[in-house]
Amino acid sequence: MSLHRPASALRALTVAALAVGAVLSAPAAGATPQEAATARSATPTFLSASQLPPHPTSSWTAGPVTDGFPDELGLCVSTEGVPGYDYRYRRFWTDLDAGAVQLTVVAGTSAQAKALAQHYDDLIRTCADRVEESSPDVEAEGRDYGTVPVEEGARVRGLHTETTWGATDIALLSVGRDGRTVTVVKWGQMGGFRDAPVAAFKKTTRTAVNKLY
Length: 213
What we know:
The protein is an alpha+beta fold. The chain has helices spanning 7-25, 33-41, 110-125, 127-134, 198-210; strands spanning 61-62, 66-67, 86-93, 99-106, 138-148, 154-163, 168-178, 181-190. Strands 1, 2, 3, 4, 5, 6, 7 and 8 form an eight-stranded antiparallel beta sheet that branches.
């Protein structure tokens, strides 16, 4: 059963997103010279393959750290309405059906990073509704798995999708922040909520945020 919202609520979310976009796009006028220099030189560290939720029959492989925004997040998260920050990502995969990706974004100030983290979490929270609106042959449901106490905080959510022809997929997504840097982690495979390694993914999220710097 999906988490539906009336049209008025979706319009309100759109207005709120525009307001967040204004905050994200505002010049980093409040940044001190030290903050600006740190933001430019920051190079966040990424997860390693061994820090992903263990797969029962296959090991994880990590790809290289790459500049840009990963396609794997496009279902729920995008760069639309967000300034051209320093996006970098790393993909992970198994020999079977599981895959993962980590994105890091370095903003100009802590305030911008806080707004960006909230914006990404809002996009993930409302993702099931958008999936159903754009794809009538897909049923989607989102779940909130709560926060992870690490640095400036993180939150974990789940997304299950099922098509009319029987394909079913489960994803776990988290957004966390350390100062001026935001990280988004996504894990996914075929299956349902019962197949989601929530506890292990929360540990991965905590490690991802702690490992940024």
